[in-house]
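User: Here's a chain of 406 residues. Predict its fold as tokens.
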Amino acid sequence: MSFKRICAQIFIKDGLAYTSEDATTKITESGDVTEAAEVFESMGADAIIITDLSEDEVAHERAILAIRDVTSKVDIPVVAGGNVKRLEDVKKYLYAGCTMAIVDEDSVDPVNGEEIADSSLSRFGEEKICIRKEKGVLYLDRKCGEQFIVPVTDTGSVCDLLKKHEIAGVYSEEFNSPDFDFFGLKIECKVDGADVDTLDPEIDFSELKTNEAGLVPVIVQDYKTDEVLMLAWMNGESFEKTCRTGMMTYFSRSRNELWVKGETSGHFQYLRAMFVDCDEDTLLAKVKQKGVACHTGARSCFYREIMSKYYEETNPINIFSDVMDVINDRKLNPKKGSYTTYLFEKGIDKVLKKCGEEAAEVIIAAKNPDKEEIKYEIADYLYHLMVLMSMKEISWDDIIKELANR
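Assistant: Prediction complete.
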């Protein structure tokens, strides 16, 4: 889905997150980079532009680690640049999980004299490189025609700018406060005719079939795993507030008042999608859960099994996660006689050798007509690949996010 983006910025210096290039005001009290990114995402920012202000290689590597942590924690696009002195620096940003890397238009590699912008576009493709022109204008996505992300000094001009075809997004130092209401600005732009990303329900709450108290039940699921987290209730006011802020807001029947999930505990829920059932009397919300959903400290309110019948798990995400959990457990708690433990004891060279052997087995099996053989070999290869992932501390979430960025 294509829409105009209102972007937040983070300037990283000495491992801390600042609101501007002068690095005098931290975005949050702690200055933590990931915390700042999560705050911007929760307030409705559509993307985050990160500028690395580091002055030496050690600080640069520290910034890359911080960016990698950000991209693993937030769902919105992260675009990063600054301190790009060679093509390798561009690669570091992309390998850290950034959607795009920012390269200054006139940057030149001091070693070979190559223009980094041209070599970056050639190496990584136009969809991965954002060219920074004069006055901070970011140039991107030439396949769809000239598109720009532009800085603004007057937020009153944002709506008019976003209605222009060539403007893909805007950013401003004024947006870089943890209190800035991105959702509010986007609603204003939407009303003014700009194509921005807002939570606009296709039906009005009045169209739902409520109970005698004017409430509808809301089933809450994790947006990635579909795990059922809890059940709560909404009235018209809490429904409207959820759509306006992106934060799950419910109606408490016991306290007879609205409550924002996480208001006390810090375990907020951020809306990703909402569905209504066929009878229009129940809502299903897919959310990003921060922390746990249950007041007992359990991840889900539905943690007590009262009966069961054997069945085979078929959800691929759950299966991959379960196998990876076992592999990680063998790494932390070696078990005598375990093949996984044996691989960890033999070390990285043994695991790499097995990955190579198993990859070759997949190729050989693919030349044969028996589909069962290649299924077996692929599963064997994936298992050894997961051992390697565990050794390198890479999760399936990391891989899925990387695939989603491509």
